[in-house]
Specification:
The protein is mainly alpha-helical. The chain folds into 2 domains: about 80 residues, Orthogonal Bundle (Rna Polymerase Sigma Factor, Chain: A); about 70 residues, Arc Repressor Mutant, subunit A (Orthogonal Bundle). The protein has 7 helices and no strands.
Length: about 170
């Protein structure tokens, strides 16, 4: 049991980052992580220790988030998805801050399925296979959603596409 709790504890910072990226609200993200951890503790008998706890926790968190979003849509409550300004300070100059805010807004405007997969892979450093397992979609779908998300971010921020290095 102690190993299980240690694994859960090690995942908390990553869960908080992901929840914050999904909700764009620090308080809502903390509530989401707390709900995720509570559910994990209540349902720990359902966890099959065939692999790491991390994907299981991310799946719980994502399902809770999606359920909450469905509830909000049914009730017709509008939740503003504005960046709260608590991003790492890229630089002290105004241009860098504006660019960072532009990227945050572009990320916020991505379709949910693209934002979810991009954050798992780019922010959390998960492999396509791990993201595929968490989102319960084929790996090819993960790859195409990431590609579309990156293209949408480039378009929204007017960033040039990455240059490919020539192979000699």
């Amino acid at each position: 049991m102690t190993g299980f709790l240690d694994e859960i504890e090690a995942c908390i910072p990553a869960l908080r980052r992901y929840a914050r990226g999904l909700s764009h609200d620090r308080d809502a993200a903390d509530d989401l992580v707390q709900d995720c951890l509570e559910r994990a503790m209540r349902k720990r008998s359902l966890f099959r220790p065939l692999g790491p706890v991390r994907p299981w926790l991310f799946r719980i968190l994502l399902n809770l988030y999606r359920n909450d979003q469905r509830r909000v849509r049914r009730q017709g409550i509008h939740i503003p998805l504005e960046p709260d300004g608590n991003y790492p300070d890229a630089s002290t100059n105004q241009q860098s801050r504006l660019e960072l805010a532009g990227v945050a807004m572009a990320l916020q405007n991505l379709p949910a399925e693209q934002r979810e997969v991009l954050m798992l892979v780019a922010l959390e450093g998960m492999s396509y296979e791990e993201a595929s397992e968490i989102l319960e979609i084929p790996t090819g779908t993960v790859m195409s959603r990431i590609s579309r998300a990156r293209q949408a971010l480039r378009t929204a921020t007017d960033a040039p596409p990455p240059r490919l290095r020539s192979v000699k």
